[in-house]
Design goal:
The complex is a heterodimer of chains A (201) and B (84). Chain A is an all-alpha fold and 201 residues long. Chain A contains seven helices and no strands. The N terminus of chain B is likely disordered. The chains are: A mainly alpha (201), B mainly alpha (84). At the A-B interface, α2, α4 and α7 of A face α2, α3 and α4 of B.
């Protein structure tokens, strides 16, 4: 057994009850907490600003397509489910199943990008672009940053898929957990964005 | 949160889908109701916790992280509702 094998073996028995070792590792959770704070504060500032332009926010929010938003919620949560299944199978060393679920995760995650792009196209066609008004500025910035996170998540998952495809035994479970946590973070952010942007005004 | 510890991934997914459907129906039918915001934020918060505790396996994490997530949600919801 060489040094890297030892490292892999050691990471399999991490105690998540230790405050420094949440699932995925403390670094990814520091990132998740910071991201949640950033998006949360942005949404709170948006709601504060809506008090000075309530009619505009009501009108613009009403023009967003709730059906697209709801479908995208289903898409992201389903993708998250497959991600969780993939990680579960990976820990059981059922690598073929893990790879299959990871592929589903990425495919369904890509559907989110397609639906969001369609929504963006409609908004462009209606002239509701960045700079149109205060509400649309928040809409584009918040959903745009979220979409960048989804794209980065897909790249991370693609890298993990390649690693598992080449040699699953060499993939550290902590790395896989961290990648999965990043992907689920996109779900968490969307679950904050969707009700506030699409429903509350 | 103990009830969240014992449900499987598939059950979690079914619950999440039900919550999305309930929220969509509620948003379409009752968007002028006085408790609309509370229900919408409550349902979204429940989905948030299901994803964090079940899919992200935070049910097995140290209590600090669990409390942090729940506190974050409560503070976020309270601020949003109090501003609205």
């Amino acid at each position: 057994m060489n040094a890297s094998d030892t490292t892999i073996e050691e990471t399999q028995i991490i105690d998540n009850k230790n405050v420094y070792y949440p699932p995925g590792g403390i670094l990814i959770w520091m990132l998740i907490v910071l991201e949640l704070l950033t998006f949360g504060i942005a949404l709170i500032v948006m709601v504060i600003q809506s008090k000075s332009e309530p009619d505009l926010f009501h009108e613009m929010s009403g023009k967003l397509n709730t059906l697209f938003g709801s479908i995208n919620t289903i898409v992201l949560l389903t993708s998250g489910f497959f991600m969780a299944m993939s990680l579960h199978k990976f820990k059981e060393k059922a690598f073929a199943s893990s790879k299959k679920y990871l592929m589903f995760t990425m495919l369904i995650g890509s559907v989110f990008i397609v639906i969001k792009s369609m929504e963006y196209q409609h908004k462009f066609a209606e002239g509701m672009t960045l700079g149109s008004n205060t509400f649309m500025n928040y809409y584009w910035l918040l959903t745009g940053f979220h979409m960048i996170h989804v794209l980065v998540g897909l790249v991370i998952l693609l890298l993990m898929y390649t690693s598992i495809h080449r040699n699953p035994e060499r993939v550290d479970v902590l790395d896989y957990e961290a990648s999965a946590s990043f992907w689920h973070m996109c779900d968490l952010i969307w679950l904050l964005l969707f009700p506030v942007l699409y429903l509350l005004f | 949160m103990s009830h969240l510890n014992n449900i499987s991934l598939k059950t979690t997914w079914v619950l999440l889908m039900l919550l999305v459907i309930i929220m969509s129906v509620f948003a379409l039918k009752f968007n002028t109701h006085s408790n609309f915001w509370f229900v919408i934020l409550g349902l979204s918060g429940l989905k948030f916790l299901l994803v964090a505790f079940q899919f992200m396996e935070m049910k097995s994490a140290n209590g600090f992280w669990k409390v942090l997530l729940v506190l974050y949600l409560i503070i976020f919801a309270v601020i949003i509702v109090s501003i609205k």
